[in-house]
Write a structure and sequence with these properties.
Length: about 425
Amino acid sequence: MQIIEVKNAIKLLKNLKQNIAFLDIRERKQYVQGFAFGTINCPLSKFKTIIKDLLPDQSTAILFIGIKNSVQAKKVGRITKSLNYKNVFQIEGDYKKWKKEKLPVWAGEYTFSKAFGEWIEITSEVKNLFPKQLKKIHQKPHNYLQIDARPKKEFEKFTLPNSVQCSGGELPCFINNQTNLKKDYIVHCAGRTRSIVAYQTLKDFNFKNKKYVLNGGTQNWVLNGYDRDFKNKSKIKSTKLNFKSDLNLANKIARKFNIPKSSQKNKNHSCHYFQLNSEIKNFKKIKGWKQVNATTLVQNTDKFIASTKTKIFIFSNIPTSAVFATIWLRRMGYDAIWQIKNPRSFKKSYSITKPDPTYFFPKRHLGNKSHSRGYLNWEHSLIPTIRKWGCKQPWVSANQKNLRDIKHTIYKVYKNF
């Protein structure tokens, strides 16, 4: 590994022509308490297993921070060399020097995606509904479809009274039928991000009905003294799938946002390949493609993507789900492409992606009100923090239609340092 001074590391991080990955090798429990802006956590204990998934392009410039000593440095250098990564740098002075230079540091879990969710709320003018208002709606007849936008496993642990489940990535397919099109919509998640994504998705896909986000989700519901429902059963598999109608809608929305498409069959191993799982219907898995829930990919990008310019091919047997993920990743500054035809299998293996333990306000979903309040306040602090660093427009507006030209936020933030 080459040792690089902090000032040269910043030059690298704002070089628009360079594909960059900024990796922090500390263990996740320590990482979430405070890390350099833009870093992706690649813990040393899992380093060799997950770095190939995070960084398929071996020419990516990798910038390391969080290396404690020469033993760790040698281990990282040895592994990256064995995997043929060609441009590997270690920041001289590590976090001690980084903080001394007053360079951007923040904290939290999936912070990049969470901040992006806050940005969408600001630029999209999301309509919020508050727990007391929802409680009153529950007490009288209404035409609302109340949707928990989290994946099935999370919904079945806990949700709100009267909620049905549909993960945001399959929301267009779920809504686009004669029954649900006649409803108005209230979307929620456990906190904020996935409900904001769901709300904007309803706008993106031209659903004109009234729509609201439950402010603060199940956490705010508990803070207002109301009870959650536990051990519900999702009925998402009863959704009727009209492939022709779904494909027509997908093509219409792809044109609306000018997103790139691909029908290529030859695979370049230097790219990301994601096949989106469906909770509506089981489809055949394609070898060489990483299996992931669409909403999880969007909300937890730092578990799947570490570099700024690597091409990302998205395929789903439900076309609107693929368009959903492509739109959201491009908004976040990633070079995502809709794979429109069934891809061929090819040789490539992946590590198993497991849920992370909760270390940041860890009791926020266990009914602890101080943790819930602290977590929601933290989410609200993310965009003001980016703006304090001098970055007024970290992402494109949610109202921008043309997503052909995109730029990762790393370049936007570090150009101010």
